[in-house]
Design a protein that fits this description.
Blueprint: E1 2-4, H1 23-51, H2 61-80, H3 88-92, H4 102-132, H5 139-152, E2 157-161, E3 168-171, E4 177-181, H6 182-187, H7 191-207, H8 214-228, H9 235-256, H10 263-268, H11 288-298, H12 300-307
Helix pairs in contact: 1-2, 2-11, 2-12, 4-5, 4-7, 4-9, 5-7, 7-9, 8-9, 8-11, 9-11
The chain binds zinc ion.
């Protein structure tokens, strides 16, 4: 069985029609968008200070608004960030990239470098989610979850693949390799984006051929569906849950690696490949923008963090200080 991270490449989408704009005008527009974005983030931070104290057990109308604002901020941040990811619809419109293309090579090196860290973060995220959704309470359920975490550790390699283009995939019977399209490798320009996509694929491997994580996938999908009114069943539940683990892994990666960059910028990178113009879905996947919506609906505090800004305050302070990591998922 082959599991893919995005299914749209083969769905015969129509080509994108973009408004013609001179390069100078395009740069000017992007700068203007980024200035407005910075000002609006500063305003949002003042509003969020009160909001962040509300209960997280329910999903309110104001949470829904927060989620929508976070989607907008994420996709604007993508434009303003030199390391912002290329959206997958733009990747799809590009010609194939050779394995020895410099951007594909640097993407492959980034993926190989981050694979060991991401394996550990995925194990921790799966255990955390299993606890959150009440699937870690008995010895049997703990044994099942721990077996999925162990499976993740068998993945040792990222293999660049020209024909996979803007997809990454794993073969569950032989879970040692993640096949990664060269366009996708080149289009994810940050560590945060790469961690989120690697974690997605590793979660497929964790569930394995016997679908061990299916109860967790169903529980996550049910909560997301209740909060967004999206239809999230079958393979869509698995794909969304893999993305949920991806976001958690990226968030933890950010917490554990020092950076001078603002937190919202780093957080946005976990979502930016979904900032498409052509927002179509298929049977197995929510549309890319619905995916961002569901992910923020599942983690409203994260949407709040994304809307907070360090501009004018902690802009020159590291996002986080490195901390000592536990190596065992059972310590989580
Ligand atoms: Zn997938």
């Amino acid at each position: 069985m082959k599991t893919r991270i995005q299914g749209e490449a083969e769905s015969g989408r129509t080509a994108l029609h973009r408004v013609a704009m001179s390069p100078r005008l395009r740069v000017f527009s992007a700068i203007l968008i980024c200035i407005i974005h910075a000002a609006s983030l500063a305003q949002t931070q003042r509003r969020n200070d009160a909001h962040s104290k509300s209960s997280r057990d329910t999903f309110t109308a104001s949470d829904r608004k927060l989620v929508e604002r976070a989607i907008g901020a994420t996709c604007t941040e993508r434009i303003c960030d030199p390391q912002g990811s290329m959206p997958i619809d733009e990747m799809q419109s590009r010609p194939s990239l050779a394995v020895n293309n410099p951007d594909a090579i640097s993407g492959a090196q980034r993926a190989e470098r981050l694979l060991p860290t991401t394996r550990r973060l995925v194990g921790e995220a799966i255990v955390k989610l299993a606890k959150e959704y009440g699937l870690y309470g008995t010895a049997l359920s703990r044994a099942k979850i721990n077996a999925t975490v162990a499976r993740v550790q068998s993945v040792k390699r990222v293999k660049p693949d020209v024909d996979a283009r803007d997809n990454a995939s794993v073969v569950l019977r032989e879970p040692r390799t993640i096949e990664f399209g060269t366009i996708f490798l080149a289009g994810l320009r940050s560590d945060e984006a790469m961690v989120s996509v690697l974690a997605h694929e590793l979660t497929h491997i964790a569930s394995g051929p016997s679908d061990t994580l299916r109860p967790l996938f169903r529980a996550i999908a049910q909560r997301a569906a209740a909060r967004t009114n999206l239809r999230i069943q079958g393979q869509r539940a698995e794909e969304l849950s893999c993305d949920r683990v991806g976001v958690m892994a990226a968030r933890e990666f950010i917490a554990q690696t020092a950076s001078w960059e603002p937190l919202p910028r780093r957080l946005a990178r976990a979502f930016e490949h979904n900032c498409v113009d052509d927002d179509s879905s298929d049977e197995d996947h929510l549309s890319p923008r619905s995916t961002i919506r569901a992910l923020f609906a599942l983690d409203v505090p994260l949407a709040g963090e994304l809307l907070n800004t360090t501009i004018g305050r902690n802009r020159f302070a590291p996002t986080a200080f490195p901390i000592t990591l536990t190596s065992s998922a059972s310590d989580f």
